[in-house]
Design goal:
This protein is α/β, with parallel strands linked by helices. It is built from seven helices and eleven strands. Strands 5-2-1-6-7-11-10 form a seven-stranded mixed β-sheet. Strands 3-4 form a two-stranded antiparallel ribbon. The protein is globular, with a radius of gyration of 15 Å. The two termini are 24 Å apart.
Length: 184
Amino acid sequence: MPTVHVYIAPGFEEVELITIVDVLRRAGIETTLVALDEQLAVRGAHDIVVQADAGFAAVAELQADAIVLPGGGPGTQALGDCLPLHERLRAQAAAGRRVAAICAAPTVLAKAGVLQGREATCFPGLEQVLAEHGAKVSNYQVVTDDIVTTSRGPATAGLFGIELARLLVGHDKALAVGRAMLFL
């Protein structure tokens, strides 16, 4: 069974986090919510508290098939300020394992050096950050370039989750989940 680590920080975008995790778990993907520290109760941008499954240190030695970053302004800022996360993202990409981000969070991938030379998308208005770090900016809702998948924002979270499911468990399973959830 494929594994995914979804990193969350205070101020994450709730719609993105919950939608992505829901889609991945429905597809049978082992999905772990990882807090940036050992405080597992994490408050989102709209005051919804989500309980992470593990803290940052607890998954340090575990390799996931994919690392996913939800957006949200304050959450993205916290993810971007976490230099050990940047190291983890670079190691993940260097090992040929998937990295993904939605909304403002592709800027974290850009700053970590993961988007250099790759096509990517993000929340409107943040394209310059991606371009400054060598990404080829796209306006598509969801973009996959090799091992990197990015998406634009809350309204695209379902399609983003389905794309990740397709990449991890195949077209047929992703299609079935997408249809059952009325995304497709």
